[in-house]
Amino acid sequence: AIRPIERGSVHRICSGQVVLNLGSAVKELLENSLDAGATSIEIKLKDHGAELIEVSDNGGGVEEENFEGLTLKHHTSKIQDFSDLIHVETFGFRGEALSSLCALSDVTIFTCHKSAKVGTRLVFDHNGKITQKTPLPRQQGTTVSIQQLFYTLPVRHKEFQRNIKKEYAKMVQLLQAYCIVSKGVRINCTNQVGQGKKTCVISTSGSPSLKENIGAVFGQKQLQSLIPFVQLPPSEAVCEEYGLNPANMPQNLYR
Q: Which residues form a coiled coil (predicted)?
């Protein structure tokens, strides 16, 4: 007989389709920080992210009235109905990331909104409901801690731990891309294995220049092999050949 799947199971299955791997977990949290207007983002990993992923920022923080909806599925401040999608200018908009991470791991959020006098530490269960709420001093911004990613899906968790080095390498590639395009944002990522020393994975200085970001990610030597992209208007001969009017040609055709 065809019967509906129990709702809790549906949520767990679907959450594994939103957060697929280590890279997508870090990406979702990093995008939340960028959407919050952060200029400084710290990413801490323990055991390459298998034990802990922690993303801290100095963004706008979360208002108390939004604590409840923060981790509930399809709760978002970005859109209200389908037509709003045309005007989305943020990275996140579906309200799925935090709710999925709650279903797949142990989530703690520590936040202080710019209007709040003191920060709040929130602990969530796998349904995205708040189980603990304590006031704690913190500067403006938000810290999200993800412990034991995928441990609620035993088979996926085993596979995740077995391939953690590969997962980590892919995550670093994704992180490099965000570090390059995030102008004016300082991004720093560290990894700690066991009780060992923290090692720097990637670090940018918050430069407003794309070129400097590339230098920070791939080293100054790599910059020397880049060729600047210069746009030149088509010559008269080319315009004539393609029947173009030189006066109508836009100055910057490509961006």
A: none
The full length of the chain comes to: 255
Residues 6 or more apart whose CB falls under 8 angstroms from that of 146 comprise 25, 29, 52, 53, 54, 101, 105, 106, 107
Q: At 201, which CATH number?
A: 3.30.565.10
Q: CA-based angle 31:32:35, to the nearest 5? A: 85
Contact predicate 217/179, CB 8 Å: yes
Is pTM beyond 0.90 here? no
Asked whether residue 142 is domain-assigned, the answer is yes
**Contact in structure between 23 and 167 (CB atoms under 8 Å):** yes
